[in-house]
Amino acid sequence: MQLIRGLHNLDLVKQARSKGCVLTIGNFDGLHLGHQQVLQAVISEAKKRNLPSVVMMFEPLPIEFFAPNQAPVRLMNLREKLQAFQTTDIDYVLLVRFNAKFAGLSAQQFVEQVLLDGLNVKHLVVGDDFRFGKQRKGDFAYLNQQGQQHGFSVTDMPTYGVECSENFRHRVSSTRVRAALAKPDLDEAQDLLGKPFKFNGRVIHGQKLGRTIGFPTLNLNPKRLQMPVMGVYAVTVDGIAEQPWPGVANLGLRPTVDGVRPSIEVHLFNWNQDLYGKHVDVTLEKHIRPEMKFDGLEMLKNQIQLDAETAKQFFNI
Description:
Radius of gyration: 22 Å
Distance between the termini: 39 Å
CATH architecture of the largest domain: 3-Layer(aba) Sandwich
Structural class: alpha/beta
Helix content: 25-40%
Shape: elongated
Strand order of the largest sheet: 1-4-3-2-5-6
């Protein structure tokens, strides 16, 4: 996967543009099973046509630009999303800056300037609810009409669903994943995502409070303003050993020590190596309890001991 930052950098892939491409457009927050179905359709069509496959996504997300106070919490930050695309067979990810100029493009201007002049699109795969252009006036029907006029084809993907215990299919969406995590129901989230939910972060220097009470922690910078899930969890950490390493983590705002920013603090079992500066993946395995505020460090220490024992029982260690 090659990242292209901005429409102005499309000249870096002139050869691909001369042939044309198979494209999809979206936020792809969480890269859940519905997204994966869209990507597979793009990849299959691109191979059939011997064309490059391209994903166009936006930073910030459109809703974050138009209504930042109403924007839902992200399931993935940008780094996590790009890492997820690295595991697919998509050839290019085009990251477009969503600003006033881009938001002001009419549906016709979007087709002419972005799809045709910018990308030379030959086939487009979109979701069944896809809207685009100023005031969201563009839709699948408009794309179909434009495709017939300009020589590209369009496929709309039906809503993807997963079976549930009530004998009907749940629509897979980023909104539903957020709702599952808010419960928190990690099994439901995994059913929708097709994989366990995890964070990625760089290990940074913290206040080093944990080591004073016998529980040294990895402090991770989650690179996000909000967390889609908070509380205490049994976790595994990838990227530090040959196998996922077990531990217990607090995700949230560290209210006991007056924290004001999202944080991930992980206590690894039987681990004593320095990991500062390293990027690691933290996978949520089991919810233990909500985040709490304690009256003093002694009560906090006692609760962490209980949390650690619960996590060790889960891992059978």
